């Protein structure tokens, strides 16, 4: 009789063992708080297009003016022919910054001549450079708004602007045959140097470097523009 009583006494132990840690839980809520793991890396931020990076670099100097100097001018002007830049204070002024990611206007002052403004505009393909030339009364010069669009992506430091068809026609109409093969370029090292350049296949090379380390007193507004 004592041997038969063993089995009922062991039954609760078997039931407890069946619910031990080795048995999967039937609770549907089990594991709901587990965070799924992912080995995929987060996407890297898109790199700015060279045109946008170049504009942003120049826009970082909005509202400032800088002194420049001619570093290359070849071939030299013929003897007896006046040099428009010799002995003149050269100053660039970064202004026209209402939409710096779309357009910047940079007057280039040569002594008391405030007729020149470089206009940089973002296009669908890159950048456009135009030269806005005005008379002292603000009226446009006969040769104005000439320039060109970039044909290559360029870099955040340098952009090149071959002459466009409209400018070629303007130059030809004004008898400026040498200018129909112009290529302009701009370079910027923020906080260090800005360069304006004109070149031609015949060897003409003109470069002005501006010192971005030391802002100077703001010049007057360019002719035809409102005071900033």
Task: Describe the overall structure.
With 228 residues, the chain is α+β, with helices and mostly antiparallel strands. It has a single domain, classed as Lipocalin (Beta Barrel). A ten-stranded antiparallel sheet has the order 6-5-4-3-2-1-10-9-8-7. The longest helix has 13 residues. The chain is globular. The N and C termini lie far apart (112 Å). The N terminus is likely disordered.
In a nutshell, what does this entry contain?
The protein is α+β, with helices and mostly antiparallel strands and about 230 residues long. About 15% of the residues lie in helices and about 30% in strands. It starts with 5 loop residues before the first helix and ends in a 12-residue tail after the last strand.
Order of helices and strands: HHEEEEEEEHEEE
Widest sheet: strand ordering: 6-5-4-3-2-1-10-9-8-7
Category by helix and strand content: alpha+beta
Give the C-level CATH assignment: Mainly Beta
Number of helical elements? 3
Main sheet?
10 strands, antiparallel
Q: CATH topology, what is it called?
A: Lipocalin
Distance between the termini: 112 Å
Gross morphology: globular
Would you tell me the overall average pLDDT?
A: 86
Radius of gyration: 35 Å
* Proportion of strand residues: 25-35%
Number of strands: 10
Keywords: Signal
Region (Disordered): 25-44
Signal peptide: 1-17
Protein name: Secreted protein
């Amino acid at each position: 009789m004592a041997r038969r009583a063993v089995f009922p006494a062991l039954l609760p132990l078997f039931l407890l063992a069946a619910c031990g840690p080795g048995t999967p839980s039937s609770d549907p809520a089990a594991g709901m708080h587990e965070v799924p793991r992912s080995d995929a890396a987060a996407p890297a931020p898109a790199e700015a297009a060279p045109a946008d990076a170049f504009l942003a670099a120049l826009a970082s100097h909005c509202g400032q003016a800088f002194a420049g100097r001619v570093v290359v001018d070849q071939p030299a002007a013929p003897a007896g022919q006046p040099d428009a830049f010799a002995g003149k204070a050269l100053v660039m002024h970064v202004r026209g910054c209402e939409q710096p990611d779309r357009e910047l206007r940079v007057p280039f002052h040569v002594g008391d001549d405030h007729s020149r403004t470089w206009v940089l505009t973002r296009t669908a393909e890159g950048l456009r450079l135009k030269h806005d030339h005005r008379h002292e009364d603000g009226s446009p010069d006969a040769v104005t708004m000439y320039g060109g669009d970039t044909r290559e992506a360029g870099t955040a430091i340098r952009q090149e602007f071959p002459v466009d068809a409209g400018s070629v026609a303007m130059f030809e109409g004004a008898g400026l045959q040498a200018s129909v093969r112009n290529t302009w370029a701009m370079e910027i090292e923020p906080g260090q140097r800005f360069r304006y350049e004109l070149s031609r296949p015949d060897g003409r090379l003109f470069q002005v470097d501006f010192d971005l380390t030391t802002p100077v007193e703001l010049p007057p507004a360019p002719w035809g523009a409102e005071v900033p």
